[in-house]
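Reopening closed ticket. The problem is back. First fold of the pair:
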Amino acid sequence: MIEIHEECTGREPGRRHGYDALNRSTVILSVAAWEGFVEELLEGAVGYMARNVRGPSSIPKNVRDMMISFLYERNGWSKLKDSTKSEIWSLTGNGWRSNYISFAKSRISSLNTPNHANVKKLYSSVIGVPNCSEFWNYGRWSSERYIEKLEELMNMRHRIAHGSIGKDTVGKTFAKNAISLIEFISEKTDRSVKNHVRSIVYPPKTISN
């Protein structure tokens, strides 16, 4: 979209009238690309963990508890006490792996708005990563600044998609920055998730005296 815009209007500074639709489309597609990336990265992490961890005890406890709640609701189990949850995992054999994938797919499919809060909650509940925006920083920009920029992009996308933007225009600079933002946070999120998954599948060995 940006290439089409520049081919039609050139690269010189200044607002070009009549090309706002291209910039709006760029914003919509950038958010769609981010959502697709979030889902695919998480699906890949879940699949890798399900195949390679030694057993359910390797999965973070908060994820196991969420999965128990999912299975309870799906199968209509009797109410479970905290004291019996660990016993369930000891009886599952390898069946927990397919149940884990089913649980993850259910959670992933529920993602509608890929803002920071929703993505952070999703990643925490499915693979236990404490902070998926850990590496969202560069130079003077902190992770909080990048989170703010993502929220601005999400708000703009919402206004465009729901027709509440009115006669306001979306500049080419905003559209180009949207692409750069998504590229940056995608790369950094990938790094955070890979580090987390690696620590679960290949935990550091303890040295006994």
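Second fold of the pair, where the issue appears:
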Amino acid sequence: MFFLTPVLVAIVCILVVWIFKNADRSTEEKRGEAGARVEARPWVDEDLKDSTDLQQEEEEEDVDEWQESEESVEHIPFVHIRYPEKEMVKRSQEFFELLNKRRSVRFISNEQVPMEVIDNVIKTAVVKDPDMKHKIREIIEEEEEINYLKRMGHRWVADLKKLRTNWIKEYLDTAPVLILIFKQVHGFAANGKKKVHYYNEISVSIACGILLAALQNAGLVTVTTTPLNCGPRLRLLLGRPAHEKLLMLLPVGYPSKKATVPDLKRKPLDQIMVTA
């Protein structure tokens, strides 16, 4: 009969432990790879990072580069106009009717629009030079073709067919005005140190919503576009600093005479609001 010596028993135990550890490690690696495949989102623009990403970068950078927040900010009286209840109902209904007519219009006339209107709704510079608009179109169409053929995937491309849209963006040339909205992931204090802009993406997104309402109120149309993976090249083209990231591009103008939009219906109120 064969008997195991203490030394042999110890070796066998070590081998068993080693086998189990390697099996666990292999399982974890497979899970990690599977998780990476699930988390992989090729359509996500790497140029769009929110404050949460900034916080991680901040921890790795020299703390001396960042400006401490001001201890106090002066407060001033708030001026508010209070309307009678009937007037409030009337204004809210009129605003709803106005915004309910807003649609994404991809067929935009080349008719010029009053720049004073654009200045009033945005209070910033816009792109209206034909050559610059065409360069923007070339960059976007080049990247969009890759998006449609490789990055976005079959399901996304199939879902877009009903909107009759593809990587050809003729409206970038025909629209008299292009508004490119950049978010600043951080700013700079007077002493040159970096200043954190908290919630920069959601703040700029809210501003975009207000801008869309203002354009609709002025009688102009646009289509909200988010040029995927175009941000760095467009930023360089327009000479914008590295701490600005492209969030949205709006071609603005009058609708063309033969403009069409998808016949989509808005959700009823009971599907978008819950009251308790």
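Update: turned out to be a display glitch only; the data is intact. The first helix runs from residue 6 to 39. The two ends are 79 Å apart (CA to CA). Please close again.
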